[in-house]
Amino acid sequence: MKPMKVNDIRISAIGGTICSIWASISLGDVLQTALTAALGTLVSFATSRLLSRWKPKRGK
Q1: 3 FRET partner, CA 20 to 30 A, in 20, 38, 42, 51?
Q2: Short-list 7, 26, 9, CA closest to 17
Q3: Quick one: pLDDT band at residue 4, thresholds 50, 70, 90?
C-alpha cells in the first residue's frame, strides 16, 4: 500500500466537507432562500421607485 500524498489528503477533506454540507441542505431551505431573495429584490425596487418620485429633479 503506498502512502497518501498531501494533495490526496486535501482533496479527501474537501470532498468530505462538501458532502456533509450537501447533506444538510434541503430543498425547502433552497426554496425559502430563493423566495426571500425575490421578495427582497421586489421591495428594494419598489422603494427606489417611490423615492425617485419623491425626490425633486435637479437642473429643471
Answers
A1: 20
A2: 9
A3: low
Q: Which helix (H) or strand (E) covers residue 38, if one does?
A: helix 27-54
How far apart, in whole angstroms, are the C-alpha atoms of residue 56 and residue 46?
Answer: 18
Grid cell locating 53:
418620485
3-state class of 44 per DSSP?
A: helix
Angle among Cα 46, 47, 48 to the nearest 5 degrees reads 95
Based on its alpha-carbon atoms, the radius of gyration of the chain, rounded to whole angstroms, reads 24
d(CA 36, CA 30): 10
Alpha helices, DSSP H only, in 4-26?
Answer: 6-24
Lookup result for grid cell 417611490: 50
Indicate whether this model's pTM tops 0.85.
no
